[in-house]
Design a protein that fits this description.
This protein is of the alpha/beta class and 430 residues long. Helix content is 46%, strand content 12%. The chain is built from 15 helices and 9 strands. The protein has a 9-stranded mixed beta sheet with strand order 3-2-4-5-1-6-7-8-9, sandwiched between helices. Strand 4, helix 14 and strand 5 form a beta-alpha-beta unit. The radius of gyration is 28 Å and the shape is elongated.
Length: 430
C-alpha cells in the first residue's frame, strides 16, 4: 500500500516565524508559544529551541545570543541558516498566522503517523478485535492531545467566568437538573464536560437511580444510555413502570390488574416522548461509546447527558488486560468522553466488599472497586445507600445520596425516597 513520502509541513512558515521572532525578540512573546517538537525542519527546530529557552530565561533573543548558544552546543552548521533568517523577517502581526499553520501541520503529521501505525496493525497477525481497538485508542489519543494543546488567553476566559457568576446571581441553574431538588441544590446541576460517578453495593438501586435521572433529563435534552448489563427492553420497562406508577414485578409476571393497564399505557405514552437513546451492546469500549455518541449527537445538535452502566463492564482496548487497568482506562476515558461530546457523563460503579465488615456500612471513597483512578478522574462521587438492605426493620422507602466528592462545592447527604415496586426514586424529607 502506497504511503506519503513527505510529511505535512510548511518550511516557509517556520522560516518566517523564526526570522520575525529573531528580529522582534522581547517585543513579540507570542512567537515562542510553540513547542519545539511542532517545528518540522530539524535545523529550524534546534534554532527555535535555543531561542525559546533564551526568552524563557530572560535573555534577549537576537542573532548574537542565539549564535553563541549554537556554537557552544556544537551546532556551528546552523549559523549560516541563522544568518539567512534576517532577510525573511516580516511584521509581528503575521506571527499568529504562522503559528496556526505550523501547529496544524504538526497535528496532521501526528494523524499521518497514526495512519501508518494502523496500517502496521492491519498487516500484523493480530485479531480483528485487537486491531480495531488499537486503532481506536490511537485516534482517541491524538484527539485528546489536540484538545490539551488548545491554549486560551486568560483575557478570553474571564468574560465566561463573569457570565456564569451573573447567571448564578440570577438564580439560574448552570448545569442540567437531575430532577431531584435536594441533589440539584448541592450540585447546582450537571455541568457539560464533567463526570459524576454513582456507586453502591448490589441492591442499592444504582441502575434505577440512573434510569430516573435519564428520564428526568430526557424531557428537555437528548440523553444516551450505554447499558452494558441490562437489555434495552429491561431499561425501557423500568422507564414505563416508573413513569406510570405500576409494579414492574406484576407487569413482568403477567399479574397486573386490568385497571393498571391504563397507567401502563400512560407511562408508555410519556416515555415515547423522551429524547432518549439506549445502546445495550455488551463490553463496549470507551472508543466505541465515543464513536456512537458522535453519530447520535451530530444530526441532533448535541447530547446533554451520557450514562454508562457500569464501569466494571466497559471493554478494554487490549485483550488480556487486568480488570484494574481496564477500569482505570475506562474512568479516564469517561472524562475525555464528556469533554469530547460536551455532555455530562454519569458512570455507575460497583464497590468492594470491605464495607460489609464495618458497623456503619455507609460507603467511603476508599470502597470504590477496582479503581485507583475513579476518585481522581471524577468531578463528583455519589454513593447510593439504603439502610434496609442491611437492616430488615429499617424504613424500606428511606434512601440516601452521599456526596463524598464535589470538585467545586461541598459534600453532604441528600435524602431520597425509594418506591421499590415502581423502581422509582423521588425527593425525600427528613
Amino acid at each position: 500500500m502506497a504511503r506519503m513520502k513527505h510529511p505535512p509541513s510548511s518550511i516557509d512558515s517556520e522560516r518566517q516565524l523564526l526570522a520575525t521572532a529573531l528580529m522582534a525578540g522581547d517585543d513579540c512573546p507570542e512567537a515562542f508559544d510553540l513547542d519545539p517538537d511542532e517545528i518540522y525542519d530539524t535545523g529550524h527546530r534546534k534554532i527555535y529551541d535555543v531561542m525559546r529557552k533564551l526568552n524563557m530565561g530572560g535573555t534577549r533573543v537576537d542573532v548574537v545570543t542565539v549564535g553563541d548558544v549554537l556554537q557552544r552546543k556544537g551546532l556551528d552548521r546552523l549559523i549560516p541558516v541563522l544568518g539567512g533568517l534576517a532577510e525573511c523577517a516580516t511584521s509581528t502581526k503575521a506571527v499568529p498566522s504562522y503559528i496556526k499553520i505550523i501547529r496544524e501541520k504538526s497535528n496532521l503529521r501526528k494523524v499521518q503517523k497514526v495512519g501508518y501505525d494502523i496500517l502496521d496493525l492491519v498487516e500484523s497477525d493480530g485479531s480483528y478485535h485487537d486491531i480495531v481497538h488499537g486503532a481506536q485508542s490511537q485516534v482517541f489519543s491524538v484527539s485528546a492531545e489536540h484538545r490539551s494543546n488548545s491554549l486560551t488567553s486568560i483575557k478570553d476566559i474571564i468574560p465566561l467566568v463573569l457570565a456564569d457568576a451573573e447567571s448564578a446571581a440570577k438564580g439560574e441553574n448552570l448545569g442540567i437538573p437531575t430532577g431531584f431538588r435536594g441533589l440539584d441544590d448541592v450540585l447546582l446541576g450537571m455541568k457539560p464536560g464533567d463526570m459524576t460517578v454513582v456507586a453502591g453495593r448490589p441492591g442499592m438501586g444504582k441502575t434505577a437511580f440512573a434510569v430516573n435521572v435519564a428520564t428526568n433529563v430526557a424531557r428537555n435534552v437528548p440523553v444516551i444510555v450505554f447499558s452494558l448489563e441490562m437489555t434495552k427492553q429491561q431499561i425501557v420497562s423500568r422507564c414505563i413502570c416508573s413513569e406510570g406508577g405500576v409494579s414492574l414485578y406484576a407487569m413482568s409476571k403477567g399479574t397486573l390488574p386490568k385497571r393498571e393497564y391504563i397507567k401502563l399505557a400512560d407511562g408508555a405514552s410519556s416515555v415515547s416522548k423522551l429524547n432518549l437513546y439506549i445502546d445495550d451492546t455488551p463490553q463496549l469500549s470507551i472508543m466505541d461509546m465515543l464513536s456512537r455518541s458522535r453519530s447520535i449527537a451530530a444530526p441532533i445538535g448535541g447530547v446533554g447527558l451520557i450514562i454508562i452502566d457500569y464501569l466494571q463492564l466497559v471493554g478494554g482496548s487490549k485483550r488480556g488486560q487486568d480488570i484494574r487497568d481496564i477500569v482505570s482506562e475506562a474512568s479516564r476515558g469517561c472524562k475525555l468522553l464528556a469533554k469530547e461530546i460536551g455532555a455530562h457523563v454519569i458512570a455507575l460503579s460497583q464497590l468492594n466488599r470491605n464495607l460489609e465488615s464495618r458497623t456503619d456500612k455507609r460507603p467511603k471513597l476508599s470502597d470504590l472497586r477496582e479503581s485507583g483512578t475513579i476518585e481522581q478522574d471524577a468531578d463528583n462521587v455519589l454513593f447510593l445507600y439504603r439502610e434496609c438492605v442491611y437492616d430488615g426493620s429499617a424504613d424500606k422507602e428511606s434512601a440516601e445520596i452521599i456526596i463524598s466528592k464535589q470538585r467545586n462545592g461541598p459534600c453532604g447527604t441528600v435524602p431520597l425516597k425509594y418506591e421499590s415496586g415502581y423502581i422509582r426514586f423521588s425527593d425525600g424529607n427528613w
